[in-house]
Amino acid sequence: MEDITRGGQFLVKETKCDNIFTPEDFSEEQIMMRDSVKEFVDKEIWPNKVRFEAKDYAFTEECMKKAGEMGFLSVAVPEAYGGMGMGFVDTCLVCDYISGATGSFSTAFGAHTGIGTMPITLYGTEEQKQKYVPKLASGEWFGAYCLTEPGAGSDANSGKTKAVLSADGKYYSITGGKMWISNAGFCSLFIVFARIEDDKNITGFIVENDPSNGITMNEEEHKLGIRASSTRQVFFADTKVPVENMLAGRGEGFKIAMNALNVGRIKLAAACLDAQRRVTSNAVHYANDRIQFNVPISSFGAIRYKLAEMATSAYAGESAVYRAAKDIETRIKIRESEGASHQEAELKGVEEFAIECSILKVAVSEDVQNCADEGIQIYGGMGFSEDTPMESAW
Ligand SMILES: Cc1cc2nc3c(=O)[nH]c(=O)nc-3n(C[C@H](O)[C@H](O)[C@H](O)COP(=O)(O)OP(=O)(O)OC[C@H]3O[C@@H](n4cnc5c(N)ncnc54)[C@H](O)[C@@H]3O)c2cc1C
Question: What pLDDT is stored for residue 16 in this prediction?
Fold first, then answer.
């Protein structure tokens, strides 16, 4: 037990190499899971990149349904609510391999399984979990998360959306506008953050998507990338939400919002790994095939240097993500063995490794961007063409 590495300790404590988890340590079960995710992406997602780039939102939804049928949406959901109840490493593994082909699907997957589902699994009452989580885990329903507003971005607790309790105390009326809402176009449920009276902190609510209940939305945003991920403004006008749909307690919303995003940091890093593998592999093939000055361009030092840099960052990111994921999983298990509920254990486990999760989010997301940039350079003019995988990767 004394060999367990605590959050941030990598800076100050010597870690025994036996305690560092790497992809070589994956169990047979994890390898099988990885291979089935990879097969799904190779068959359903990668060959259809062009549909994602052409803003085929319906196709993103179709792929999400298929991912649900394969069980990929339920990996992190406890078995009691229709999920597989798998560990933190498994969750990162699925997130890694399902995200490599296109950011559109990756965003839809991440928004649904993360911020769309986790606020309920981590903070919901037993009744809320029984009612909503099985539907989200199977893909029968999709979730979206409404925090951002036109005047409340980084300063997320400053939102102006209001929740007013009815005279009979049975429901809240929610009024306000949210923007940048991923999955809005096809979700059945929103996690909405609103302020009650002049409370210091916002409150979270589970809101079913029912247009007859004052819910409207703008058209899809036209974005720089992740083009087929649905992103819309959502408006609530006197939307009635039963009091039993409040998440955690009054004024607890900011904590929910921040903790849901906290868990998302390491998953975002994981979601950038397979994209680097795919970009690097494609660049290697192209560099070997493309002849200039009578030799493959892969024989030039500058091209080799780029490929080496791409492989280095992919290797370092992969190693660090799985090392941290395993450390988090170990801490979750220890806390559970000490009597904490799964929710408490997961929240505290991730919180303890906030330093590692933050480092990974920044470093690996910058790596994938650099990797795609180098990929474009290696493809030369062709890198700028939609016909090659580099343009969409960038
Ligand atoms: C594709 C996409 C999908 C999204 N999906 C969702 C979703 O599903 N649900 C949801 O609720 N939101 C979503 N968002 C919104 C996202 O969470 C916000 O864009 C984000 O919180 C930043 O807010 P902002 O865009 O208003 O930027 P701002 O807060 O206006 O920030 C602008 C710039 O100022 C910097 N800045 C802000 N504060 C500080 C500070 N204190 N110190 C230094 N610099 C600072 C920021 O880093 C940034 O560079 C999505 C956004 C995008 C682009």
Answer: 85
Q: Which helix (H) or strand (E) holds 166?
A: none
Nearest ligand 1 atom to the CA of 154 is: 29
Each residue's pLDDT tens digit, 345-374: 998 899 999 999 999 999 999 999 999 999
In a domain, 4, yes or no: no
The CA 156 to ligand 1 mean position distance, Å, reads 9
Q: In terms of domains, do 124 and 151 share one? A: no
Q: Is the dihedral of CA 386, 388, 393, 394 positive or negative?
A: negative
**Three-state secondary structure call for residue 146:** strand
Tens digits of per-residue pLDDT, 41-98? Answer: 999 999 999 999 999 999 999 999 999 999 999 999 999 999 999 999 999 999 999 9
**Quick one: pLDDT at residue 142?**
98
pLDDT tops 80 at residue 1: no
Q: Which domain holds residue 133?
A: 9-138
Binding pocket residue ranges, ligand 1, CB within 6 Å:
111, 145-148, 153-154, 180-182, 223, 226, 231
For residue 27, the surrounding DSSP H or E stretch is none
Alpha carbon of 272 to ligand 1 centroid (Å) = 19
Closest residue by CA, ligand 1 atom 47 = 154
pLDDT of 307 reads 98
From 55, 104, 142, 154, the mutation candidate for ligand 1 (largest count of ligand atoms within 8 A of CB) is: 154
Q: Is 293 exposed, middle or buried (0-12, 13-18, 19+ CB in 10 A)?
A: exposed
Q: Judge if 27 and 126 occupy the same domain.
A: yes
Ligand 1 center from residue 262 Cα (angstroms): 15
Nearest CA to ligand 1 atom 51: 180
pLDDT the model gives residue 131: 98
Pair (271, 385) in one structural domain: yes
Question: Which ligand 1 atom minimizes the distance to the CA of 184?
Answer: 8
Share of the chain above pLDDT 90, in %: 90
Total domains present in the chain: 3
Strand segments (E) across 197-287: 203-208, 215-217, 231-242, 246-247
Q: Has residue 286 been placed in a domain?
A: yes
Considering 85, 119, 138, which residue would you say is the last residue of a domain? 138
Q: Which of 197, 230, 256 is the last residue of a domain?
A: 256
